[in-house]
Amino acid sequence: MDYSNEKLINYLKEHNIKPSTIRMKVLNYLFMNKTHPTVDDIYKSLKEEIPTLSKTSIYNTLDLFLEKGIVKVLSLQEKELRYDIDTNLHAHFKCEKCGKLYDFPISPNFFNDDHLDGFIINDRDIHLYGICKECNDK
Ligand SMILES: [Zn+2]
Ligand SMILES: [Zn+2]
After folding, report:
1. Ligand 1 mean position to 97 CA, how many Å?
2. Taking 70 as the threshold, does the pLDDT of residue 1 lie above it?
3. What is the domain-level CATH number for residue 124?
4. Domain shared by 73 and 110, yes or no
């Protein structure tokens, strides 16, 4: 089930983003598809609903979301960037067989910051690569 327009509008407003049809559609897509989609994934899915949609408008929307801190961009060992609506600290596991990207929790003290005295940390990314349980069990 899709998120209600009211919910989407409120969420955008809470993050100082002026609601528009495309912003609401992209936000809804991200909430409904927590699979870390690429611009292409989003474009293909929304194109049917909005025939006038361009990839540029999706890029612009995601850039704005990024600036406002409601998405994170993931740069994995892939050609295309993926977007994550979950901005809380968590790690990713990329299966090299099925390509699926898994979220898993990590504790903040997973990092040993002792060696970073005097450094300022703005962002943290942990990406693991291997074979997921599902593929391994086959
Ligand atoms: Zn797999
Ligand atoms: Zn994630």
Report:
1. 5
2. no
3. 3.30.1490.190
4. no
List the domain range (segments joined by +) for residue 104. 88-137
> pLDDT tens across 50-93, in order?
999 999 999 999 999 999 999 999 988 778 899 999 988 899 99
Bridge partners for 83 per DSSP: 73
> 99 and 63 share a domain?
no
Q: Which residue type sits at 87? A: T
Q: d(Cα 18, Cα 14) in Å, to the nearest integer?
A: 10
Ligand 1 centre to CA of 100 (Å) is 6
Residues 107, 121: one domain? yes
**Interatomic CA distance for residues 79 and 136, integer angstroms:** 25
Instruction: Give the number of whichever ligand sits closest to the CA of residue 106.
Output: 2
- Count Cα neighbours of 11 within 13 Å in the Cβ-side half-sphere: 20
Calculate how far, in angstroms, residue 131's C-alpha sits from the geometric centre of ligand 1: 6
CA gap 42, 138 in Å, rounded: 30
Neighbours of ion ligand 1 (CB under 5 A): 95, 97-98, 132, 135
Q: Which ligand is nearest to the CA of 103?
A: 2
